[in-house]
Model the fold of this input.
Amino acid sequence: MIVYQALIRLFGKGRFSAFDDKALEHLKSLGVSHLWLTGVIRHSSGKPYVKGQIGSPYSISDYYDVNPYLADCPEQRMEEFLALVQRAHDKGLKVLLDFIPNHVSPDYSDPFGRIPTLGIHDYDWTDTDKIDYGQESTEERMLDILRFWAAKGIDGFRCDMAELVSLDIWSRMLGSIRSEYPELLFIAEVYEKYNYSAFVHRAGFDYLYDKSGLYDIIRGIYTGKNNCRDISFNWQWLGSIQGNMLNFLENHDEQRLASPYFAGNPEKGYAALALSCLFYPTAFMLYFGQEIGEDAHDGHEGRTSIFNKARHIRPCSRLDAAHRNILRTYQYVLQLKRKLEGRSNFDLCYCQSAQNGWNSEKHFAFLRGERCLVACNFSDEPATIRLHIPHTANSVIPNGTEITIMPWNFTIIEK
Done:
C-alpha cells in the first residue's frame, strides 16, 4: 500500500476538480494505491476561535457535509466530491478520509443535531470541543458517520489521535462497521510505541503511524540524535507487527523533508526515502509535493500550513530539469516498492566490518527477497563498502559485493 496524502485546498487550483485525469495519472506513475484526501469534511471557519485564516480541517462543524470552498459550484459540493471519488476509483485508486473521533468544533451541528461533548478541549486545540463517550448515544452517532461515508464509496479512514479514544470503543466500532463493510481500511494515528500491539490486536486497526519509531529515528539521524544502529533496534522491537506500520517522512503535522529544518534539500533526503520506503515490507505514505522536493519555504518552520491561505502546490505541472530528476527518483523508489511486494527483508548491518568500509553509525544495508539489495549512506562522505552477504540470507547477490554510495543517498542492486 502506497498512500498519497493531499490537502485539497492547496493541491493545484484547490478544488475537487483539481484531481483530474492528469493529476490521477501522476499518482499512478508513483505507484500510489490509496489517496488520502485531507480537509474534505466541513470544518469551522470564520469564527473567532478558529485557527488561521481558514480554520483547521480537524475542527469539524458538520460530519455529513463537505467544505463549500472546495467545489467549483458550492451548491453542488457533495456531487463534485463524489465525482472525484468515482474518478479515483476508475483509475484503480482507493480513497481515504479523516475520521476525527475525539473532538468536533464548538459550533458543531448536523442534520441529526449535536454530538454530545464535554465543553473542554485537549492540548492547545482551542478550536475544538471534546466528544463525550460517557453518553450512550455517542458510539452509535460516530458509527453512523462511518456508515454514511462508507455508503458513499469511501474505502477507509485515517483516524486522528486514536489514543484519545479507548481500545474497547475502537474494538466495538471497528467490529460493527466491518460487519457491514468488511473491506474498510483503518489507519490509526498512534504515538506511544507501547500501545502499538494493542491497537493492532485489540482495537483491530490495519496500520499505525510509526511516528515514534522509524520516523523519529530517521529524523534523529539528520539532527545527530540517533544513528543507524537504532533502525535495527526498532525493527527488532516491532517483531510481528512490522507489517502493520505506516512509514512516512512527511505529513501535515511534520516538517517537510526538503526544508532547512530537516534534510535541507530534496537530494539529501534520498537515503531517508529509500530506507523508510523499502526496508519494511509494509505501507508507505508521502505528502503532496514531497515527490518534487517541496520545502514549504513560505510555511511555518518548514511546514505547509493547514490553517492559512498559502501558495498552491502543483506536483503534476510542467517541471524544470531539477524537479524532474527528483520526481524520477521518487518514481523509481516507489515503483520498486510495488515490485518488491511480498518479499521479506533481511537486515545486513549486524555482519558488516569496518575494515571493509562499513560505518555502523552512518550506513544501513538490507535485502528484500533474494534479488534486491539496498544500501543507504547517512553521511557527508561517499562510501565504498565490500558487503558481507551471509549464506543464511539465501540471496543471489554474491558475498563480497562492492558498492559505492554517494553522501545522503542510496545504492540499489537488483538481480
In short: The mean pLDDT is 96. The chain has two domains: 2-339, 345-414.
